Amino acid sequence: MTTITAPTVTRESVDRRIKLFNATCAGVLIAFAVIWLVPIAWAVDTSIKPNSETTNPTWAIQDPTLESYRTLLSQGSIWNWYASSFITSTLTAAATVLTGSMAAFALSRMRFRFRWLIFWFVLIGIMIPQQALIVAQFREFAALQLLNTYWAVVLPQVPAAIAVFIFKQFFDGVPRDLDEAARVDGAGFFRTYWRVVMPLSRPVVAAVAIFTFVWSWNNLLWPLLVMTNPKLMTIPVGLATVQGTYGIRYADTMASAILGALPLVLLFLFFQRRIVEGIAGTGLKG
Amino acid sequence: MTVTTAPDRPVTGETPLPPDTAESPGHTRPALLMMAPFLVLYLLFVIGPTLYMFLMSLFDTSLVRPGLGSFAGLRNYTEALGDAAFWASMWHTLWFTILTTPPLVILAFLLALMADRVRRGRWFFRLAFFLPYILPSAVVALIWMWMYTPELGLLSRMVTALGFAEPSWLGDPDLAMWSLALTTVWWTLGFNFVLYLAGLQDIPRELYEAASMDGAGPVQQVRRITVPMLSRTTSLVVVLQVIASLKVFDQMYIMTSGGPNFSTRPALEYIYDVSFTDFRVGYASAVSTLFFLLILAVSTVWVVLTRRQEERL
User: Fold this and answer.
1) Among candidates A203, A183, A198, which has minimal Cα distance to A104?
2) How far is CA B264 from CA A73, A231, B90, B99, B175, in A?
3) CB atoms inside a 10 Å sphere around CB A253
4) Among residues A65, A83, A190, B177, which is most buried (max CB within 10 A)?
5) Residues of B in contact with A14 (CB under 8 A)
6) B129 and A5: CB-CB below 8 Å?
7) How far is CA A187 from CA A110, A178, B163, in A?
8) pLDDT of B73-101, one tens digit each?
9) Residue A144 burial (CB count, 10 A)
10) How far is CA B169 from the centre of its chain?
11) Which residues of chain A have a CB within 8 Å of the CB of B192?
12) pLDDT for B257 beyond 70
């Protein structure tokens, strides 16, 4: 390949500039990353101080202690909250993946009347702010007598239009030859969906499952309304309702914050790569 | 500029499907069956409540009385539009969106751009920026209320150590919204960062190599290659961010309860207050409907703009 270089800009000088640029990037990034980690580090630092020492204005800790964690874990209510959060988030994620992918499969692979109408009808759901529906949903669940049950938290979160949209985007890109072949071999639609298309869709299934789980775990407003029984509260609701009760015991408060975040942090560390891969595969990036 | 399709999604070699108007024999029943679980839940818990909300907005519905109450016509709407508290909450929502969207888009882009150029330790940056995003809002609120605590909080100490008077982060009506915006940028930047990072990975490396052979410096490469190649990602990030910022609630609810003096009360908290403290559900439904129309308008503008952008490409 022949390259025409302007006399003042040589290949070497450009390379040098790019090296310098990349080094600057690394420096700026590290600075930002450190700033971003400071609040979390500060919370951890505070949580392992004795309550009496939290007013001491340094990072240094005289007697590091896990006392705050011990107190919280022995009180018991946090275990109930963990259980509630795990049950509701797992059910929500599983049901969202299953119902959303089935609907998306039909919209992507099957031909029937009013297909586009139904697709647009589902898309409107992305624009409806769920938070604006709380009163209507609250009355509905009161009438169904489902307040203070896990169903009240799970059911409204399952029909997530965004999940159908993401699955359809992905299925549209899966080569049709494969499932056509399965159809020719006599497999029904459901079998084709379950045995052929879903196994090919692992990255997007993982991404939708993880994000649904995280959003459900972190949802505050709706569970706050429908879970008034302290035994059934999810982690965010429990934390929001007790934060006042610790008064100035900052170490206890920070320990409760860290315990509330811990399961999701572990989930994230475990699936870090999947999350980015999943987003890259979903078409969410545009 | 051409639109690149993701390499993992080949679309060639497909048998073309029959046109949409033609109903393939035997598809309708199984299709409806497969969509049924989603559609039933969707009608029951999304579309149903939306229609019920429209209906309640026309009545003097109360939270503490069953049924719809007496018919009010459009009175709830005219009352909302004439109420200063309604307009104040709409303005706070808008102001919060203005404060948070530019940093959450531009900073996320710059950080992803830099992370994409760094060869080693990308996992560390992903961890640092994305970690706050997965924290529950209650946890974020607890950590930042501690950071903002007068005299003891980390930020207060840093400011006083630099010799400034200590600001009242959440207590000063002029400053409270900025403090909440700062918390939000720290908390949610990671999602946009990951979206940008995924978009950047799709840009072929050869483009940069060719550009540098032609003598283009790093800044030119970013301006001429990266920014245009990411235009679709950017339009998506912007609209998701605007909608997310308009829907803000959690931070205010826990950190300031809309105070001081209602200076940080966003639209959703106004709806919440009117419903659950004043029990005026009919009026709250009218406000919800107006708010829904606002989000619908924003989404429509985005669809029109991106259509036009795609036509140009």
Assistant:
1) A198
2) 35, 32, 11, 13, 10
3) 28
4) B177
5) 212, 215-217
6) no
7) 14, 12, 75
8) 899 999 999 999 999 999 999 999 999 99
9) 13
10) 24
11) none
12) yes
AA letter at B145: M
In this complex, the residue of B38, B199, B275 whose CB is nearest that of residue A135 is B275
Q: Which two tokens stand for residue A108?
A: 């992507």
* DSSP sequence for chain A: ------SS--HHHHHHHHHHHHHHHHHHHHHHHHHHHHHHHHHHHHHTS-GGGTTS-SS--SS---HHHHHHHHH-HHHHHHHHHHHHHHHHHHHHHHHHHHHHHHHHH---TTHHHHHHHHHHHHHS-GGGGHHHHHHHHHHTT-TTSHHHHHGGGS--HHHHHHHHHHHHHS-HHHHHHHHHTT--HHHHIIIIIHHHTHHHHHHHHHHHHHHHHH--HHHHHH--STTT--HHHHHHHHGGGGTT-HHHHHHHHHHHHHHHHHHHHHHHHHHHHHHHHHTTT-
Q: How many CB atoms lie within 10 A of CB A234?
A: 32
C-alpha dist (Å) from residue B229 to A29, B6, B234: 22, 13, 10
Asked if residue B27 lies in contact with residue A112, where contact means CB atoms within 8 angstroms, the answer is yes
Task: Tell me how many residue pairs between chain A and chain B have CB atoms under 8 A apart.
Answer: 334
Contact A33 B128 (CB under 8 A): yes
Of A100, A136, A261, the CB nearest to B49: A136
Place of tokens 């104040």: B88
pTM: 0.85
Closest A-chain CA to B297? A127
For B225-247, the pLDDT digits (tens) are 899 888 888 888 888 888 889 88
Nearest to B193 by CA among B113, B306, B139, B134: B113
ipTM value: 0.85
Asked if residue A122 lies in contact with residue B294, where contact means CB atoms within 8 angstroms, the answer is: no
Residue A129's closest CA among B301, B137, B247, B266? B247
Residue A159, sorted as left (phi over 0), alpha (psi -120 to 50) or beta, turns out to be: beta
Phi, psi of A210 (to 5 degrees): -65, -45
The residues near A115 (Cβ < 8 Å, ≥ 6 apart) are A107, B20, B31
Structure tokens that stand for B15 in this block: 């048998």
Cβ distance A214 to B134 less than 8 Å, yes or no, reads yes
Q: Vertex B301, ends B282 and A131: CA angle to 5°?
A: 35
What are the pLDDT digits (tens) for B126-158? 889 999 998 888 889 888 988 898 888 888 888
The span from the first CA to the last CA of chain A, in angstroms, equals: 34
